[in-house]
Specification:
By secondary structure, this protein is of the alpha/beta class. It has helices at 22-30, 68-80, 99-108, 121-128, 160-164, 179-188, 218-221, and strands at 6-11, 33-36, 53-56, 84-89, 112-116, 142-146, 169-173, 196-201, 209-214, 229-233. The protein is built from seven helices and ten strands.
């Protein structure tokens, strides 16, 4: 008779394998099956046991793609066969990572599941560029949005005028293609076009690149940057903590 398997959703952090949590590494080391994504820190797979099965379900922009239903089914089937499954993806499972869908699919199928949070790139990528998402005297909060669809799209649920008036730092994930439209919508909604902005590409990685401009010009300044990238809009984007020495 097969033993009882389980699923562990592991957030792999923003890219540098050194930013995977201790609990995340332990889960990878114990896994029988690892279902991994394109943006997960793949170097961390070296921690897996020699007998662990690695299943790549990466969604390649404009290329091959594994549906979410197929991924959910993989997790459930392997766990029901008595295996310990790790769902390994970049960032945090619950920040635009569909982790909640996977968790619910497991629980509805009667599969034991748990979540190990990951370091989200929404905070980590700006931090590695010396940009804090909050700063005393400048902003008392930050808002993280998905740029997967542009303003005005039927699937967009965001109120850009409200965002423009929120007084919070605006952090945009998955917004490389839509950054120009998002910035235009924010300006149209009342945000000062001279508001500082920055884009951090490949955050936490050796290939990290940072571009700074204003909300009116950041799309042009960052035009040659590719995904993954995080955009930051607000006064904090003018801060360069990497250039501030201890005596500054």
């Amino acid at each position: 008779m097969l033993g009882t398997g389980s699923v562990t959703l592991v957030g792999g952090g923003p890219g540098d394998p050194g930013l995977v949590t201790v609990a995340g590494r332990e889960a990878i080391e114990r896994a029988d099956v690892i279902v991994t994504d394109r943006l997960a820190p793949l170097a961390a797979l070296a921690w897996a046991g020699s007998d662990a099965e690695i299943i790549d379900v990466a969604k390649i922009p404009g290329g091959r793609s594994t549906s979410q239903d197929e991924i959910n089914q993989l997790l459930v089937e392997h766990a029901k066969s008595g295996r310990h499954v790790v769902r390994f993806k970049g960032g945090d499972n619950f920040v635009f990572g569909r982790g909640s869908e996977e968790l619910l699919a497991c629980l509805e199928a009667g599969v034991e599941a748990r979540v190990i949070p990951g370091v989200t790139s929404a905070i980590a990528a700006p931090a590695m560029a010396g940009i804090p998402v909050t700063h005393r005297g400048l902003t008392q909060g930050f808002t993280v949005i998905s740029g997967h669809v542009p303003p005005g799209h039927n699937d967009s649920t965001l109120d850009y005028a409200a965002l423009a008036a929120s007084g919070t730092t605006i952090v945009i994930l998955m917004g490389v293609r839509t950054l120009s439209a998002i910035c235009a919508a924010l300006v149209e909604g009342g945000l000062d076009p001279e508001t500082p902005a920055a884009v951090v590409a490949d955050g936490t990685m050796p290939s990290q690149r940072v571009v700074r401009a204003t909300v009116a010009t950041i799309d042009v300044a960052a035009a040659d940057l590719g995904a993954p990238a995080v955009a930051v809009i607000g006064p904090v984007a003018a801060i360069d903590g990497l250039q501030i020495g201890p005596d500054a």
